[in-house]
Amino acid sequence: xxxxxxxxxxxxxxxxxxxxxxxxxxxxxxxxxxxxxxxxxxxxxxxxxxxxxxxxxxxxxxxxxxxxxxxxxxxxxxxxxxxxxxxxxxxxxxxxxxxxxxxxxxxxxxxxxxxxxxxxxxxxxxxxxxxxxxxxxxxxx
Length: 141
Description:
This protein is mostly beta strands. The protein contains 1 helix and 11 strands; from the N terminus they run E-E-E-E-E-E-E-E-E-E-E-H. The strands form 2 sheets. Strands 1-2-3-10-5-8-11 form a 7-stranded antiparallel sheet, with no helix packed on it. It has a 4-stranded antiparallel sheet with strand order 4-9-6-7, with no helix packed on it.
């Protein structure tokens, strides 16, 4: 499916599928790329709302500018995790910044929040770059 419109990036949705709707709290597992950004705009997902979900975004290559209704604007890079908890509601956008790497490749995991947290506060945060980036993890014995 296209991410951000018909001329945007393609996303592979591993979960759900016809035979499996969820695995525990995991309701979507998406991956995109590796995509050569030389011939297009990259990721251009306009502002849209979420409720009752948590998303974990992990980049293998490239950069994404995350902006949200809490006033956050952060550039997410490989080795960082971007965590967004929707709770009772949050709106956000994800876009390839004007200055970017030639390739974009990442994974996004979607978690259904438990009923007790579905109307809680929205939060958004990012981890600093961890010592174990996706590339070094793959190379470790």
